[in-house]
Amino acid sequence: QLQLQESGPGLVKPSETLSLTCTVSGGYVSSSSIYWGWIRQPPGKGLEWIGSVYYSGSPYQNPSLGSRVTISMDTSKNQFFLRLTSVTAADTAMYYCARHPNRYFFDYWGQGALVAVSS
Amino acid sequence: QSALTQPASVSGSPGQSITISCTGTNNDVGRYNLVSWYQQHPGKAPKLIISEVTKRPSGVSNRFSGSKSGNTASLTISGFLAEDEADYYCCSYAGRTTVFGGGTKVTVL
Question: How does pLDDT run across B62-71, given as a tens digit for each residue?
């Protein structure tokens, strides 16, 4: 059974960089046609797609986040990563990683990692 | 890319059918048959219940069904149960991006 698990600091200071890791078990991040995505959800609000990465090729990213976002992958560790720079309180959210086949839908989700931005 | 438009809330009585709409544009919902729907209970991760407009993943109740007409997709819950009370989100492939709806809170009357 495929499982995803987010990990990273739960508290980040304003203007610093948020870094999260998603570890995949029961499957391979290098699988053909399978993208791997990040989605976030501010407290009490809706879902926002951040971006999705494939084991070969450039990631797709939400244009609204601009150059603050970097999504990458380490196939040897079966992990993919999210890096968000210059964070503000507006980046406080539950961050989910998920499998994104062909970028059509998200079928397996991690349990989420709550990240607060505060000094 | 703007979020897809969903009603903020919908209510239903047990046994009733309820429908949630999801309105996009010619660049997302209207262009691709790649709308998906997610159910989210409080404190839980979203769960895929409909993919590619009408497909139901294994294990999802056949009380959930999806459809699309033009720029609007719809999720119908037939025989509404108290356990269906949750937030529901639509999502569409949009070429280089992916866009979610704002979410609909479904409550039992």
Answer: 999 999 999 9
Q: What is the DSSP string of A61-80?
A: E-GGGGGGEEEEEETTTTEE
- Residues of chain B in contact with residue A109, where contact means CB-CB under 8 angstroms, are 45-47
- Distance from A38 to chain B by nearest Cα, in Å? 11
Segment B74-103, tens digit of pLDDT: 999 999 999 999 999 999 999 999 999 999
Does B45 contact chain A (CB < 8 Å)?
yes
Q: Which of A72, A76, A74 is nearest to A19 (CA)?
A: A72
Of A49, A107, A112, the CB nearest to B48: A107
pLDDT in tens, A99-109: 999 999 999 99
Contacts of A47 in chain B (CB under 8 A): 38, 46, 89, 91, 100, 103
For residue B1, pLDDT over 80 is answered with no
Considering only CB atoms, A47 lies closest to which of B34, B51, B89, namely B89
